[in-house]
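re: ur question from yesterday

yeah so i grabbed the chain u mentioned. its 107 aa long if i counted rite. heres the sequnce exactly as i have it in my notes:
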Amino acid sequence: RNHSMSTTKFKTSEIDNAISMIAEAHMLCIINHLSEKEMRFNEIQRSIKGLNPATLSDRLKRLEKNGLILRKEETLDKVSVVYALTEKGRAILPVINEISKFAQKYS
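ran it thru and got these structure tokens back, copy pasting raw so excuse formatting
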């Protein structure tokens, strides 16, 4: 049995799992914007061109389900919701930085 082949399959599986967490359109953009500060839904929507509310809602739910962002309810004078990166979400920032370098070099 070829051990390197099974190791490669295992690594490919890990990569596939990781990519599936962030592969939907706009997910990396959302994570990138949240790296700067906690944001409300409307702030996120205004900061990403072409992102409609239904899509944003879906992506935020998926990112939260995957443990990349945290949805926090704040009560000041009324209940409001802000989104923030988790430790797991922050761990993807170096990857986003490398994608940015790639885009600068080749686009």
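noticed a couple things. Confidence is low (pLDDT under 50) at residues 1-7. also The longest strand covers residues 69-75.
anyway ttyl
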